[in-house]
TrEMBL record:
Pfam family, one: ANAPC2
Protein name: Anaphase-promoting complex subunit 2
GO biological process, one term: protein K11-linked ubiquitination
Location of the Cullin family profile domain: 528-731
Family, as annotated: Belongs to the cullin family.
Provenance organism: Rhynchospora tenuis
Keyword Chaperone appears in the UniProt entry: no
Length: 857
């Protein structure tokens, strides 16, 4: 035995002893070769092994035997095994695709080749076991101090088999395995879908309880045969040392099938929740398959009874599963992997379509709820923010999108993200690009006010009455939020207070530390809208102008909707801010009462013109809107001569008003209001609702059928260019025709009595309304008022730039606030000043370079 550990002991051996050792070694090598070729006797192996072991050569003969097994395995098994896949590995990409569509490939070739090589491996293991038994027999009969590590010998052989196969592994063999498992799992899914189609289609209102939801049968009946086929392949791959490769292959196939199922269930239908259906499918197909596969392979499919149970953090299911008991740790790990992958895949799918989902909100609220649950588990909120901001910049914040569409999308975004993130942290990040873009549009304020008040600003699919304004919808939301907060915070006992404290969660790391959690928790859509404008005063001023325009163009005194809107605005902005608007509505109420009073006292008096042919005008056709001009926005004035009969009617009305309301007198704005006309011709009758200017123009044609432009303009009392612009309306309706006059700038307008004389233009439908141009507004716009008010400060700005040379917007703004404190006081916002400076630049009075304003040189 000393010879093994002391090679110098060979020097003490005689030549006969060395010859005996060499003879026994040669005989052992010959026996090994004969044994592996399966034609040699096994009876001589024991004495030869014993002789060599007596001389301390046990480990040497083990190494030789393993080396002989390796050479035989390479020669007889490995080469043949890989040759089975040469046709696929050597094929081009196009030819490989043809293999993929073959129904029996690679099942037949893989199963057959695995069976052959595993059979060869088992034969070699039998020979190795024979050697191990021989060594054990020798050790039992001898009194040796050391024993051979027999389990290690088998492990060395297994390691040898794995090493030989992995070092000769073709590049495409992992693809073969993935394709095999993919086809098998698709077949399994198809079988399960045919058997349990009705069971998999569940309704979100009929969800199972936790125990039933997690239940899996311990057998799959008709699917067991397929599972056994797959299990046989996995078992063979494991025995060859491909454990990790096999698991990677069927894992890849499972996740690919799961991804396909997510896309199938989710798709482009956002009105149906899919998360619960998806989780049930995971338990019915892939997890059930893994349960049976692990059982077939002999792995533990139930946890130890005394071991602590493992609970999925992704759902609140019991650790003990009906039909299985306590699931093994491996099965729970698979469950966690599959559910997390499903959440992440569904989340990515919904984030990619979030723009369309928000467009369809609130119909798409089930998709939003699914996305919320996914984000709770994955925590990938930053992915949502980055992706959605990119979609907004590419699809919404462009010159082709109208301001109204952008605002509607912004409101829907607020509502949807309020569901996903009630704290409003991610809304701050997503909404900032929208707000910045809207601040650069001139019609933003007008569109916001219109959306808030006109009855079409709210989302058409939202709950509530049809025609409700966004302001009314927001008021309902505010009441609901206030009620919820009262239930949550007010009147709670000590137990409820502890429950609320346990539900408390800190703000996400992305939250702005300057904003407290309590302020962020309540998302006020109206406040966010005001934030776009810059101040509530600008919104109130714009509303005041729009209200004035609407009231002046009313043909009756119905202002119920305006009163309701005003009351809602007073809730949000305070009564003092809306005082002038309230006076404007009171003017309409007083006008209705005064108008009825005057008509009752005057009766049906008639103003009759002295000239023959002039028609009678009754007081019944006149309804006057009497305004307190000091509280209304600046009114657009335009000189207009109305027909004498109308003028006398206005005079009679004014006299009676002075008698009732002495010493107050009426100052008529003859260009404002609406006139309902019925025009009767030889072969037709037409009705219109137009402005007083258009009515005055067409009424002149009662006296004579043709007018030249200069005479008609002088008769009405307005410039010729303004007349030509207004009279185009009657020409477009086929009421008048125009022709060249005597002079170059003269035009003849003629009434069309019969359509047989003029058929170039189609008849206008009855009751058509005149669409006034922007330049024909009754009230000066906010922009026009701003320019007028800022003109006072123009000389100051020019003088400042003369002294300083250049100045930033902030410096000009702060200087004006500092020095312009007396009447008129500078009280404009930074945005309003920037708008005025832009007008000065367009007038070439100023120029802007690198953020610095200077005088135009």
């Amino acid at each position: 035995m000393a010879m093994l550990f002391d090679p110098g002991a060979l020097d003490s051996l005689s030549e006969d002893a060395i010859s005996g050792i060499l003879h026994d070694w040669a005989h052992f090598c010959s026996l090994t070769t004969s044994l592996l070729s399966q034609d040699g006797p096994t009876s001589q192996l024991a004495p030869t092994v014993a002789s060599l072991c007596d001389r301390g050569l046990a480990f040497l003969l083990q190494d030789h035997f393993l080396l002989s097994l390796e050479e035989a395995f390479k020669r007889s098994a490995v080469k043949k095994f890989w040759q089975q896949f040469d046709s696929y590995c050597d094929a081009s990409a196009i030819e490989k695709a043809k293999f993929h569509v073959q129904e029996s490939w690679p099942e037949e070739i893989l199963s057959k080749s695995l069976e052959q090589i595993c059979s060869e491996k088992r034969s070699q293991e039998d020979f190795l076991l024979l050697l191990i038994e021989t060594l054990k027999s020798y050790e039992q009969n001898s009194k040796g101090e050391r024993e051979t590590d027999h389990p290690q010998l088998m492990s060395r052989y297994q390691l040898m088999v794995s090493s030989v196969l992995l070092t000769t592994l073709p590049w495409d063999f992992p693809d073969v395995l993935r394709i095999y498992f993919k086809k098998k799992l698709e077949e399994l899914n198809s079988m399960m879908a045919d058997g349990d189609n009705d069971e998999l289609e569940i309704n979100s209102h009929d969800l199972p309880n936790d125990a039933d939801f997690y239940h899996m049968d311990t057998s799959m009946f008709e699917c067991n045969g397929l599972v056994m086929q797959i299990g046989k392949v996995v078992s063979d791959l494991r025995s060859l040392g491909f454990t990790s490769m096999a698991e990677d292959a069927y894992s890849s196939a499972i996740f690919l099938l799961l991804k396909s199922k997510v896309n199938e269930l989710a798709g482009d239908d956002y009105r149906v929740p899919v998360l619960w259906s998806l989780k049930k499918w995971i338990r019915a197909v892939p997890l059930q398959f893994l349960h049976d596969l692990l059982g077939y392979l002999g792995d533990s499919i139930e946890g130890e009874k005394d071991s602590p149970s493992v609970k999925s953090p992704l759902a609140s299911q019991p650790s003990s599963v009906p039909g299985i008991g306590i699931p093994s740790e491996a099965l729970v790990r698979w469950q966690l992997r599959l559910e997390y992958f499903a959440y992440e895949t569904l989340q990515d799918l919904r984030i990619g379509k979030l723009f369309e989902i928000i467009v369809d909100y609130p119909d798409s609220s089930p998709a939003i709820e699914d996305l919320k649950r996914c984000l709770e588990y994955t925590g990938q909120h930053s992915k949502l923010v980055d992706s959605f901001i990119s979609s907004l910049k590419y699809r919404l914040l462009t010159a082709g999108a109208s301001t109204n569409d952008i605002l509607h999308q912004y409101v829907s975004t607020i509502k949807a993200l309020r569901t996903i993130d009630p704290a409003g942290v991610f809304l701050e990040a997503v909404g900032e690009p929208i707000r910045d873009y809207l601040r650069g549009r001139k019609d933003t304020i007008k569109c916001i006010v219109t959306m808030l008040t006109d009855g079409t600003g709210g989302n058409s699919g939202s709950s509530g009455n049809a025609g409700d304004s966004l302001l009314e919808e927001l008021n309902r939301d505010t009441e609901n939020q206030d009620g919820a907060e009262f239930e949550e915070d007010g009147g709670t006992d000590e137990k409820q207070a502890w429950l609320n404290a346990e539900r408390w969660e800190p703000d996400p790391v992305e939250a702005d530390p300057l904003k407290g959690s309590r302020n962020r928790r309540k998302i006020d859509i109206l406040e966010l809208m005001v934030g776009i404008i810059g101040s509530k005063d600008q919104l109130v001023n714009e509303y005041r102008v729009m209200l004035a325009e609407k009231l002046l163009n009313k043909s009756d005194y119905d202002i119920d909707s305006e009163i309701r809107t005003l009351e809602l605005l007073k809730i949000h902005f305070g009564e003092s801010s809306m005082q002038k608007c309230e006076i404007m509505l009171n003017d309409l109420i007083d006008s209705k009462r005064t108008n009825a009073n005057i008509k009752a006292t005057l009766g049906k008096s008639v103003a009759t013109g002295p000239e023959q042919g002039e028609i009678d005008v009754s007081l019944d056709i006149l309804d006057a809107t009497i305004i307190s001009s000091n509280f209304w926005p600046p009114i657009q004035e335009e000189e207009l001569n109305v027909p004498s009969s109308v003028d006398r009617l206005l005079s009679d009305y004014g006299k009676r008003f002075h008698e009732i309301k002495a010493p107050r007198k009426l100052m008529w704005k003859k260009n404002l209001g609406t006139v309902k006309l019925e025009l009767q011709f030889e072969d037709r009758s037409m009705q219109f609702t137009v402005s007083p200017v258009h009515a005055a123009i067409i009424m002149q044609f009662q006296e004579k059928p043709s007018w030249n432009s200069k005479s008609l303009a002088a008769e009405i009392g307005m410039p010729a260019d303004a007349l030509n612009r207004r009279i185009a309306f009657w020409i477009s309706k086929g009421v008048l025709t125009e022709s060249a006059g005597a002079g170059p700038d003269d035009t003849i307008f003629t009434i069309v009595e019969s359509m047989s004389d003029f058929n170039k233009n189609g008849l206008a439908s009855e009751g058509c309304q005149l669409m006034e141009e922007e330049s024909e507004r009754s009230v000066a716009s906010v922009e026009e008022q701003l320019i007028k008010e800022m003109t006072v400060f123009e000389k100051f700005i020019l003088g400042l730039l003369t002294n300083y040379g250049t100045a930033t917007l902030d410096k000009i703004h702060n200087t004006l606030k500092m020095f312009c404190t007396s009447e008129p006081t500078y009280d404009k916002s930074l945005h309003q000043l920037q708008s005025f400076l832009s007008d000065l630049i367009s007038e070439e009075k100023l120029e802007l370079r690198d953020g610095l304003y200077s005088l135009k040189k």
